[in-house]
Amino acid sequence: MDTEIHRQRHAQRWEAAESSARKIAIGGVIFAVLILLNVVEPYFEIDEQKKLLPDLQSELQSLQNQKQALEARRASLTEIKVALDNVDKAVASAPWKAEIEKLIEICKRNCSLQKANETVENIASLMRQQTVAPLRRAISQTGMASELESAAARIDASIDAWREPLIDNPGWFQSVELKHRTAAGVGSGISDATREAAEEVDAVSAAATQELAALNQALEAQKQSLETEKDTLDKEISEKQSRIEQAMQAALPAWATGLFTVERMVNLYPWILLIVGIWVVVNGLTAGHHYRRMADAEGWTAEERGDPVLSTPWTLTWRGAAGGAVTIMSYGATLGVLIYCIYRSANPGQVDAFMAKAEAQIVSDQPVELAMAVLALALVTVSVITMRRGK
To answer: According to a count of CB atoms within 10 Å of the terminal CB, is the N or C end of the chain lower?
Structure first.
């Protein structure tokens, strides 16, 4: 009686384990494929699309930077024009007339060439202080020395053109009339040079204004295009995320609905498939164990044990050559699909992102490779057990 009870219990457990292995294998394969195609791969596609958003923003920022640079350039040109206006005012006020008047007063008593030269040098120095120095300072502060140094140099040259004929030349201070005529001509050259410098600055300013207008037009068009593209991309990403969430929840069993976010599912995907594969093999081994115990109780011979009709493809035991081939193909197909899905979940171009996310939650250096290796080992175990001849 006890032997019969044991036989029946082993038979029941064999059938239960075989049924579990079959159901888990079929359900696991369906789950693996559905999650791979509808969750994992679309998730990485969204990741790739999200990478485009900073690029779009960067393009827009680049145009904004160009606009700011041009606006700063135009503001700098305005400052330089103000400096040129101040030069004109300085020339008009003729602060060097005091030096001429001083010389005229001195020459009423006695006038030397040295004193005349000294007066010319003082006037030249004063003109540079009042005109060239502030203009060069403004040009330097605005960072446009390479473009507008010629404007300051032109005024400086006009001062030299006035100064050189007067040095060591007593003719210009021989009479009061000549002194006044010389004094009157001090600023004429500077005024001409200032006017030419102003025209040069105006030309540069006009070019900058025209360039800024063209850039503003291009910026507005590009901004609208980029914003449209960004809105479209945001909408596509949002729709895909919604579809992925729905697909994932549909693939999960009822008890697991709501337990997983998409990112968590992607992170745990290789480990879930590893557990499914191991669970299938464990149930197959359990079925094989109870089948052999039942066969022992029945007193079956090796030939009877090897008859595939007396067992099922999901029972991991000796089932003869034909039966063993069917079992190996059944488990091989199941584990092969799981391995392939794990491999596809970390395909080239996305493996770094996937590994980084997986390792954030799973403490392992190579989660994908480890899962694939364990399932491959399970497949070898299945093959060895199935082809090992019983007694």
So the answer is: N
